[in-house]
Amino acid sequence: MSIEAIDIKTRAAVYAALGDPARLAIVDRLRLADASPAELSALVGAASNLLAHHLRILATAGVITRTRSEGDRRRAYVRLKPDVLADLHLPPRVTAPRVVFVCTRNTSRSPLAAALWQRHSPVPAASAGTDPAARVHPKAMAVARRHGLRLTSAKPAHVSEVLDKDDLVIAVCDTAHETLTNHPRRLHWSVPDPVAADTDAAFDAAFAELDDRVTRMAKLLTDNGRDHR
């Protein structure tokens, strides 16, 4: 069988999996952020057994995967596999005057995400932490330099000092997402904490995942007509 035939079969399985309104709604939601099964159940109004059926079809087609929370280990999150819908050319679905990336300590994932966002989008970005540390992690600054970004001006800040009610908040760690429950506009990217491993490889992996997610999200989000000059 040729590579082209294999690719056609794979794409056909994806399109077949999306041929149900509930599954399409699930995928639309996951294009923006990761979500728990409970959130997806509420979204599509499906009982747990029916939701499990939908998720199984999406997983079999290679559309989604699941991860365990680094914060509350009892929780699981469903996420879209990168690039699986790249050829669908779906339109933007979100507007916001500013994006604020949040993690717990505001030392690596959130400042890196904000710096990457400024590279890919004219919509302003900031970062904050639910329990900020005293400084940005040196390995986060190093990985940023390796990719042509600068974090030297970044200083960890508490969410209460940064957030406005109209901001789109993207929690880039499980603990921050599970802590920050009162902001009306919040999305979640379940990005593993590179500080836990404290290796260059872990920071490179976190940077690569954030770069991929930011690149995709920047295509889906527009501002509210604010002049950014």
From TrEMBL:
<protein>
    <submittedName>
        <fullName>Transcriptional regulator, ArsR family</fullName>
    </submittedName>
</protein>
<feature type="domain" description="HTH arsR-type">
    <location>
        <begin position="3"/>
        <end position="100"/>
    </location>
</feature>
<dbReference type="InterPro" id="IPR036390">
    <property type="entry name" value="WH_DNA-bd_sf"/>
</dbReference>
<dbReference type="InterPro" id="IPR023485">
    <property type="entry name" value="Ptyr_pPase"/>
</dbReference>
<keyword id="KW-0059">Arsenical resistance</keyword>
<dbReference type="InterPro" id="IPR036196">
    <property type="entry name" value="Ptyr_pPase_sf"/>
</dbReference>
<dbReference type="Pfam" id="PF01451">
    <property type="entry name" value="LMWPc"/>
</dbReference>
<dbReference type="InterPro" id="IPR001845">
    <property type="entry name" value="HTH_ArsR_DNA-bd_dom"/>
</dbReference>
<dbReference type="GO" id="GO:0003700">
    <property type="term" value="F:DNA-binding transcription factor activity"/>
</dbReference>
<dbReference type="GO" id="GO:0046685">
    <property type="term" value="P:response to arsenic-containing substance"/>
</dbReference>
<dbReference type="InterPro" id="IPR011991">
    <property type="entry name" value="ArsR-like_HTH"/>
</dbReference>
<dbReference type="InterPro" id="IPR036388">
    <property type="entry name" value="WH-like_DNA-bd_sf"/>
</dbReference>
